[in-house]
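#struct-queue
[09:14] JT: dropping the first one here, sequence first, then the structure tokens:
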Amino acid sequence: MVKGPRRLGISLHSRRRLFEYFRRAEEQQRPLEVAVVLGVPPAVSLGSIAFPPPDVGKFAIIGGLLGEPLELARCRTVDLAVPRWAEIVIEGHILPGVREKEGPFGEFTGYASTRGTENVLVPTAIQYRDAAIYQSHNAGLSLEHCMFLAFPREVMLTQLLRRTIPNLKAVRVPIRSGCGSFHVYVSIRKTAEGQAKQAIMTVLGADHYFKHVIVVDDDIDIFNDEEVLWAVATRVQADKDLVIASGGMGTLLDPSSPDGTSAKLGIDATRPLGPFAARLTLPEAAIARARALLGLAAASPTPPPSGR
């Protein structure tokens, strides 16, 4: 948020690396050197949202996506390196012990939010290319905003769940219905009772943004919200299929969470391994015949209107 010629607002609300770097700097009562990079190739953007361990640098991940080393350039007023081919680089310091109100902003939740860490960034230099392009995105509950939230989480969860769930089929973090952050759908071919709850606990412990996890059988298309809800409607009994944990870590940007904590809910919407009602299906031959009949009907000439 632009507050003046040499004063910006910056929010570190994800509680990830930058938040931790600043927390340590503030403990020492010193400003944190930062560089805001605007206008980069897609591989740089994708690498920047990866969730590697703290001891793994993101520049190496970006180089892997590019298929060659990422070219870097030194900043002029802070001791940092940035992607060389950025359009604009804002160098500066995040001030310790200073907080200022900011916003409201349109957030990924679909609400206007004034919540954040309210940090203040003082620029020390701006570098830019000739005819620089200011790269932004459509903020709010939009595909452009929420895709960048959902995609890395799906990759991370797939890697984690494959370690404990041998017959994992798919993972989805819904963009619209779950804001790319709050809901997780997991499809498994269950081979032992308890696997669905194991998956629920793995997911809820993987990212503090996750609030609701639904685990379904592999006959459910998790990319269709209606099928997932149908599984909940017909395969769930609340007294034995729910996992609820109170007081977990959440996000300040969740409008339902006044203090940044969040209750967590897991729903086991899988069938028991024993006897269970058979799902109604149509034979493929019957479906093919119906489609053929519909195709013939659609191709039939339309009779002319009577009267005129």
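[09:21] JT: and here's the second one, same format:
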Amino acid sequence: MSASEGCTDNSCDLPDSLPDIANEPHKGPNAPLNWVGMSEIELPVHMLNGKGAQIQTVARVQAYVNLTDPKSKGIHMSRLYLAVDQMLSDNVITPKLLREIVEYFVESHEGISDSAYLECRLEFFERRKSLKSDNTGWKAYKVRPIVSLRAGVLTTELSIEVPYSSTCPCSAALSRDIIQQGFQDAFGKSGSVDLEKVHEWLGTPEGISATPHSQRSIAQVRVRLSDKVEDMPISRLIDQIETALPTPVQAAVKRADEQEFARLNAANLMFCEDAARRVQAELNKDDSLDDFWIRVNHMESLHPHDAVAIVTKGVDGGYRDDPREFPH
């Protein structure tokens, strides 16, 4: 509980006889604080999917203001919580709504705060079409809308994680070499090749005697939205990343879908460096993104460690090339 979480704003109808320690003189070290507030606030929230339909999910919220007055005992945490509860849970999440909330955070702490931060950590559910069949399936994407107000400047950000499959180009080349050796052993002495026999041989375990290794991978992307963006572009950002990395993990899968998935992996052999550059090239086309930070993680099946590549848009004063996940 904050030092000033009590009824210092006279919003509680409680007897005057109750003690209010928040109004007592502050004793002890005096210093301003960078952030004071709450984390892990759980509440239902509403969002729009790519088709404009409203969905509901659960958010875990962080809400903070700074404390500029070194002599102040603390902030009014109840004001932060009530604003989040009343404004966030009753409306569809948009950049405009989140900006209004952080502006209220500062207004409700006039004289002791001039900065605010709001983050919603949630899972965004959307039905995604299968690769070949007419089926669709639910996929959940980890998403974090973030809005901060510092020195009078509002910043709106969106972080997302998109899982995909990556197949190692080196492993693919080594597998092809083994298959070529097998073909040479099976047909090299005949002097001529019968098409039907080759076709039949390719359908046996000996025909495909090695397969390249692939692994589930995750693209972690953080973008800074321009002020003209009115809606949370989550579906569009998913589409952009999955266009750059056209081997996304699948929900509903029939045999035709699995075969297409195998074909796409073979057609999109990627080191982590390739994946990061692909996403960078795709996001560079979007002028609604003032900045972006990309980290791709290939969770190796050959090694016990991950292969990682990180790249930013490279704007002056923008995201640092920081290896930590989702840096400020």
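[09:30] RK: nice, looked through the second one.
[09:31] RK: The chain has three domains: 1-123, 130-168+213-322, 173-202.
[09:31] JT: good to know. Residues 3-10 have pLDDT under 50 and may be disordered.
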